[in-house]
Amino acid sequence: MSDDSRVYIFDTTLRDGEQSPGATMTREEKIRMARQLETLGVDIIEAGFPAASEGDFQSVAAIAETVTKPVVAALCRALVSDIDRGFEAIKNAKRRRIHTFLATSALHMEHKLGKTPEQVLEMAEAAVRHAVGKGVEVQFSAEDASRSDPAFLVAVCDRVIAAGATIINIPDTVGYAQPAEFAELIRHLLGTVKGADKVTFAVHCHNDLGLAVANTLAAVHAGARQAEVTLSGIGERAGNASLEQVVMGLNTRPNYYNLTTGIVTEEIFPSCRRLAGIIGQPIPPYAPIIGRNAFAHESGIHQHGIMKDRRTYEIMTAEHIGRKGAVVVLGKHSGRHALDAKVKELNYTLTDDELKIVFDAVKELADRKQRILDEDIEALILEKVLRRPDHYALKHLSVHCGNVELAPSAVLEMEVEGQSVREYSSGSGPVDAAFNAVCKLVGRKPELEEFHINAITGGTDAQGEVTVRVREGNATSVGRGVHDDVIMASTLAFINALNRLAKKEDRICPQL
Ligand code: KIV
Ligand code: ZN
């Protein structure tokens, strides 16, 4: 066990997070997120699972060439072919890690792997030896560790440490553990495993019982020194332990934990907001730390206390996690330099041409909206530059609706594979009419599975942000659109989802 007080933050937003429904990202989006994770100060970025598909491989390779400070980890099953592929993907990274895993619970060994415990020991050792042979640091994860026989878990840890693994991860794969019990398991391993003092013990907790953060904190309190987390807790099923909750738990209770991380806390909210923008899933208002209500005080007694001294009802400040509140940033008369400075402050790198596109969009919005906030600028950057449509693009839309006799209808002009085309359609409402017109124009009829609308800021002139999920056969995709006209935002989101659906590829799931 390492005796220092530093907890290493291993971010798996781009791997375990991205595996969750609706969180799929394109390669460019993953690169943008990886840059933000570097600014946030995470120690390790798990960039993906290179053997899963060609797209995953390319994304991991691109991230490996983009970031320089964090270690770039590639997930690999305990197979020579996966490890070779994983190494190939991260070979150009400045700091590299192979993360290989194998299930160790009786249930998984018998029913999933069809292997005996002795075979699992041999496979784990062979995988680690092969990875160590590549000259990179090696992490081994005992999948379903919390439901494994502790004596067998010790035997596995002994074997993989002897084979050269220097990071041993104890996942609570199905979110089954309880905090005190999980802490006890970590203490037991630290006290029993041969060479435990020479390696770092890590934990990776899922949130099926809502205990992922509690289990992670209990484990680091007990001596684990790597916490595996995702931004906003996105991940398989109920998600993973959330980075912001684990980090702010350690940060807000120094007397209890006496542990530190390398996270730049002021980058927490911008990072979660960027993720929400990319995957098109708004941050829930009640989310701890980052939700809209996390620093809102409604009751009179609380407001009174807050006015006298914020510490009466706030255990951390909004500024500490990078929430500046509703800051008015730009107006109708602001110039290019002001926008340039704001774009840099928001941590985006745009070319002159892209800046011009955003500048024109801000001016256009400022004609209709009085106060342009950070959230508006970020939404316009995503919408106008980073989410540029490829196969299909919306040019003009006009709708008729209301409680008059005529059925709601839409007239739409789009660019389909470079050709300008027009269509009319009716529907049960203006959104239905617009979507029907899009379907006629592109000759597809995807099923609309989800539709969410959210106002980006307050005020009746706020920009609307629409997220949709569509399905075509087995493939699903999420699309997002932003506009101060909500029918436009809805249609942009639908077209964005269709663009993304056109590029979907098959992946193998990360199991053995
Ligand atoms: O949940 C899990 O066990 C995992 C492993 C691959 C670490 O994601
Ligand atoms: Zn996991």
From TrEMBL:
<keyword id="KW-0963">Cytoplasm</keyword>
<comment type="subunit">
    <text>Homodimer.</text>
</comment>
<keyword id="KW-0808">Transferase</keyword>
<protein>
    <recommendedName>
        <fullName>2-isopropylmalate synthase</fullName>
        <ecNumber>2.3.3.13</ecNumber>
    </recommendedName>
</protein>
<feature type="region of interest" description="Regulatory domain">
    <location>
        <begin position="393"/>
        <end position="512"/>
    </location>
</feature>
<dbReference type="Pfam" id="PF08502">
    <property type="entry name" value="LeuA_dimer"/>
</dbReference>
<feature type="domain" description="Pyruvate carboxyltransferase">
    <location>
        <begin position="7"/>
        <end position="269"/>
    </location>
</feature>
<dbReference type="GO" id="GO:0005737">
    <property type="term" value="C:cytoplasm"/>
</dbReference>
<dbReference type="Pfam" id="PF00682">
    <property type="entry name" value="HMGL-like"/>
</dbReference>
<keyword id="KW-0028">Amino-acid biosynthesis</keyword>
<keyword id="KW-0479">Metal-binding</keyword>
<dbReference type="InterPro" id="IPR050073">
    <property type="entry name" value="2-IPM_HCS-like"/>
</dbReference>
<feature type="binding site">
    <location>
        <position position="240"/>
    </location>
    <ligand>
        <name>Mn(2+)</name>
    </ligand>
</feature>
<keyword id="KW-0012">Acyltransferase</keyword>
<feature type="binding site">
    <location>
        <position position="206"/>
    </location>
    <ligand>
        <name>Mn(2+)</name>
    </ligand>
</feature>
<dbReference type="GO" id="GO:0003852">
    <property type="term" value="F:2-isopropylmalate synthase activity"/>
</dbReference>
<dbReference type="InterPro" id="IPR013709">
    <property type="entry name" value="2-isopropylmalate_synth_dimer"/>
</dbReference>
<comment type="similarity">
    <text>Belongs to the alpha-IPM synthase/homocitrate synthase family. LeuA type 1 subfamily.</text>
</comment>
<keyword id="KW-0464">Manganese</keyword>
<feature type="binding site">
    <location>
        <position position="16"/>
    </location>
    <ligand>
        <name>Mn(2+)</name>
    </ligand>
</feature>
<dbReference type="InterPro" id="IPR005671">
    <property type="entry name" value="LeuA_bact_synth"/>
</dbReference>
<dbReference type="InterPro" id="IPR000891">
    <property type="entry name" value="PYR_CT"/>
</dbReference>
<dbReference type="InterPro" id="IPR002034">
    <property type="entry name" value="AIPM/Hcit_synth_CS"/>
</dbReference>
<comment type="pathway">
    <text>Amino-acid biosynthesis; L-leucine biosynthesis; L-leucine from 3-methyl-2-oxobutanoate: step 1/4.</text>
</comment>
<dbReference type="InterPro" id="IPR013785">
    <property type="entry name" value="Aldolase_TIM"/>
</dbReference>
<dbReference type="InterPro" id="IPR054691">
    <property type="entry name" value="LeuA/HCS_post-cat"/>
</dbReference>
<dbReference type="GO" id="GO:0003985">
    <property type="term" value="F:acetyl-CoA C-acetyltransferase activity"/>
</dbReference>
<dbReference type="Pfam" id="PF22617">
    <property type="entry name" value="HCS_D2"/>
</dbReference>
<dbReference type="GO" id="GO:0030145">
    <property type="term" value="F:manganese ion binding"/>
</dbReference>
<keyword id="KW-0432">Leucine biosynthesis</keyword>
<comment type="function">
    <text>Catalyzes the condensation of the acetyl group of acetyl-CoA with 3-methyl-2-oxobutanoate (2-ketoisovalerate) to form 3-carboxy-3-hydroxy-4-methylpentanoate (2-isopropylmalate).</text>
</comment>
<dbReference type="GO" id="GO:0009098">
    <property type="term" value="P:L-leucine biosynthetic process"/>
</dbReference>
<keyword id="KW-0100">Branched-chain amino acid biosynthesis</keyword>
<dbReference type="InterPro" id="IPR036230">
    <property type="entry name" value="LeuA_allosteric_dom_sf"/>
</dbReference>
<feature type="binding site">
    <location>
        <position position="204"/>
    </location>
    <ligand>
        <name>Mn(2+)</name>
    </ligand>
</feature>
